[in-house]
Every structure is written in C-alpha cells, then in structure tokens.
C-alpha cells in the first residue's frame, strides 16, 4: 500500500527534471544571450563549430555554489583560444567510465567525488592521508591555460584551476630514495562501469620522474573553467602535465606513491611498443597508430584541417633542459 | 500458414524492383544523417573523426550485408536476394569513397607528404588504403557490359571481395586502441559468412569425389 503524504510543495513548483539537468546548459545559453539566434547558429556551425559554442559556461554566481576556493588568474596561455566548456566536458578519455568519448560524461553523472582522501605512500618520511578539502589549502589555487595534446592526434586548450604538484610533494616529504612518483586512480566497480571490463589493468596508474613532477608546469588540477572539476574530467583531483600526451594525466587520484624504481604505468603494460614512460609530445617520434607530426584541434570544425604539433607541445623552454642528452626515440 | 507461404514465395520482377528501391533508400539514410547532423552541429567535438568513423563503419556494414546474400541462399534456399549484390556492393563503394575523400581532404587537406607518411608508417592505414584500391576495379567492372566481356575472368576478379572484407575488418581492428569488442564482433560475423561458404564448398567437393569413386567402383565391377 502506498501512503501518500501531503507536502507543502505544489507539483507546479517542482523544477522539471529536464530543466534541472540542463541548468548549466541553460545558464550557458542565457549568458550567450542575443549574440546568436538559433538560425544564425545553424548556418555558422558547419564552418566554425566553436563560434557558436560559449566559452563562458557559468555566471559568477554559480562559482560559490560549486564551492571551488578562490583562485588567481595567471599569464599561462592567456593568448590561447579556449576549447569550449561543452567540448572539454563531453569529449573525454576516461576508460573507468567507458571507452567511448561521450561515455564518461554520461556514466560519471552519479559519481561521488566527496568525501575523498588521498594516501601518500612509499619513499616518504611517514605514510599519511589527506582529504581533498585540506589539499586545496596546501597552496593558493591558480588558473592556468594549457594546451592538451592527446596521443590519438587531437588537442584542446583548457583553463585548469589547480596548484603546482611541487607544493604537494613538499608537504608529502619524500626521502632521498624517492626518484619517481606514481599516481593511482580510483577503481571502484560500483561507481565506475568501465572497471568491470578487463580492457586495462586496473587501477589506472601513471608516473613521473621526480624532476618532472617538481617542474613548475606540472599541475594538480581541482577545477576547470572556474568551477570544480567535473566528474568526467577526473574529479576531485587530477594530474596535468602539458608537455606530455594526455594519458599521463591520471584522473581521480587516490594514491600517490614515491618510488626508487621507475613505475610501470597502465598504458606501458597495455602496449609497451606504443606507450613509453616518458610520453613526451614529440612530432618526430612516430606512433604505430597515429600521426604525431600534426593534430586536430577540438572545436575547430569540420573544415579546419590539422595544425602542426610542436615539440614538447610547445613547452620546450620550460621543460627541454630536463631531457638534455636523453635519446627521445628510445625513451619515448 | 500465411507467413510460411509468404516466405516461400519468390517476388516477381516488379516486387524485386520495389524492394531494391527501399534498400537503396535505406542505404542512403546514414549519409543523409551525416548531412543532417552536420547542419545541426551534431558531429561531436571531433567532427572529422566522427564522419571518418561513420562512413568507415557503413562501408564495412554494407559489405558484410553484401556477403550475407550467398549464405542466405546456401542455408535457406533464397536465390532472389542475390539480385541486390551489385547495388549493395556499389553502396559499399560509395561509403568507402566518402571515407577516403574525408580522410584525404578534411583530415589531411591533400597534404600528400603527410598522407604518404601516414600510409607507410601506420599499418592500419596501409591495410585500409589497400582495401580501397582493391574495390576500385570491382566498381569499374560492375556494369553488365564488363560482366559479359570478362566472363570467367570477371568471376575471378570479383573474388577479391573476400580479401577486401578481411582487410576491412583488420583495418578496423588495428585502429582500435584497446577496446576491441566492436571489431571482434565484425570479425566473427565475417568468419561466419565465409565459414558457411567454405562448409558448402567442402561438402560439394566431397560429394563430387564420392560420385567419382562410385563411378569407378561400378566400372570395375
């Protein structure tokens, strides 16, 4: 038997589910305002898809609602043309939520990135854990616009919000044996449908050499486009290493381990001939599947063609010296 | 009872024409869909890859459909669907040509240097290019004139469709990074389609040799 309880909310007051779910889109559209009528949008889209996609996903008011602490803007990538929020959050490689590009956005909807703790292990003074709330207090947050080049031959420009990984390492207090750092992502069969398939050797692990991890460019991201990191982009915290192929950026990190030996990463296990430990963006080193000398910029439209891929994704000045004397063909 | 009778019937010429027309329109639906999505910004964040994947998929799908007509005859005795082979084959060629055009034009902007490098260095591209090159002579000789002119050689030439199908599936398989479920499915379908043919061929050879053996036996008596 169903007992109906009276409520003081009229059915007419309840926001329809569709409207509720589309609120972000709705705000986007509203912010976009009168600039583009639907008709205009439709004729333009074929030629420049991004022209009609808003680059500003949310109004100022939504920021506090999403509880990302204050951050400062930086000069990183200030002249770059951003990939739209829509594309950044609907075109993802996050196999824990499915191998299709659109699957993470759909399958990660119910994912709970709170509460979240990260454990620090291995070659450290003392093993410890830290909550995501405390992590964002370790260092002031900043917005950095980075290019992201995927090994599959496409790229984006994303305004991340985060802090340099070096700050977290300082807090973690690694000992002198620590030569490498390993990142382990969550592998929760309940929340992540992709983990139930033996496509990769779960949990997803990635790694960096200590000097790479300490490089000022290496970012721990907790947000993008001024809001908390969306689930499909690796909530609550992910790695961003802009001069390496995108798969180096471990998502939804639960464990950080300092090691003496080079960690074997998930993709190294999956295809040792295709994916190396370094995975630096390098137009001269061919991949057996994809052209690495050029790339497709996401959002540029059907007729935009390719752009040339730059050495270290254009960050040679900041990172080139770390690889002086290293045979990048051998250590790809 | 009625269904049984209906199934047993062979459509007349007019009906064949109608079925052919419906099939023709159905085959164009994926193409129309791409155009519609293109106009309505529905080609995903990576539109070039989207149209490449889509046209490649439909080329392979229609090819497998073409190859399923003979097994249908062998297994169920329907001969009339074989009349659709040419049209389906040409439809497959249409999608494969779109696929190649998009690759050469939208993806690589006719940069022949990069294209050549891509073909040589990446096995899946090489296999795909080879598959397409093999379809060209088949499309060119698909008309009635060439069928009559080439006769036996036409039959031999068109056997390459099996090689094309195998190369097509390999092309898809090698392109996929890690999740091989989809190409695996097509590989299994192709395996079954070729397996049925092989089974009947072997049976035919066996019964032939049996006949010869019996004949010899009767002669020796």
Automatic annotation (TrEMBL), chain B:
The alphabetical list of record keywords is:
Cell membrane, Electron transport, Flavoprotein, FMN, Heme, Iron, Membrane, Metal-binding, Transmembrane, Transmembrane helix, Transport
Q: Which GO terms describe its cellular component?
A: plasma membrane
Give me the segments passing through the membrane. 21-39, 59-80, 87-106, 126-147, 159-177, 183-200
Location of this chain's protein in the cell: Cell membrane; Membrane
Is the keyword Transmembrane helix assigned to this protein?
Answer: yes
Query: Pfam families of this UniProt entry?
Result: Ferric_reduct
Q: What is its main location?
A: membrane
| UniProt cofactor(s) | FMN; heme b
Please, one GO biological process term? protein repair
Q: How does it sit in the membrane?
A: Multi-pass membrane protein
The entry's free-text remark on the cofactor is:
Binds 1 FMN per subunit.
Keyword Heme recorded = yes
InterPro entries tied to this protein:
Fe3_Rdtase_TM_dom, MsrQ-like
Q: Which family does it belong to?
A: Belongs to the MsrQ family.
What name has this protein been given in UniProt? Answer: Protein-methionine-sulfoxide reductase heme-binding subunit MsrQ
